[in-house]
Please model this.
Amino acid sequence: MRIFEKFITDYPQLAVCKEDILKAYNLLNDTIKEGGRIYTCGNGGSASDCQHIVGEMMKGFIKKRPVAFPLEIAEKLSVQTSGFLSGKLQGAIPCHSLVSEIALITALCNDVSADIIFAQQIYGYAKKGDCLIGISTSGNAVNVNLAVELAIAMGLRTIVMTGQNGANFHFLPMML
Model:
């Protein structure tokens, strides 16, 4: 909590959404503790944000996350890779960016509809208890909106980030 308070102190413009940030943290923390996965989706610059979030989750940037391999795996790695992997791998928080599946996305856009590119992946990959982070600066991204709507129906936790004027998601009261 001390780190969180320092964060708000360092970025006072975020104080207005302090409670929402804390709720998002708790949703993500619960997802991770329960063995769930985190999915991200967004368009344009928000797609880049999705990739960045995955990078932050899958490896430590500031503080390395050590891996505690079960003895059986550690022994195999020691023999097979001379300890290289066990010395380099970091603890990962399972996170996947839905903007990365180019072949699937372009096939869906061409054959079905660009509006379902993220919802189709949520349907195929996600399970109840996972978390979807949807990012839409305008709040008008239909493909993000539909993915969040499906995620809610499937029992996923959802976090939606929009710009200051981007609250056009029609089911916002049901989400963080």
About this structure: The chain has one domain: 16-65+92-174.
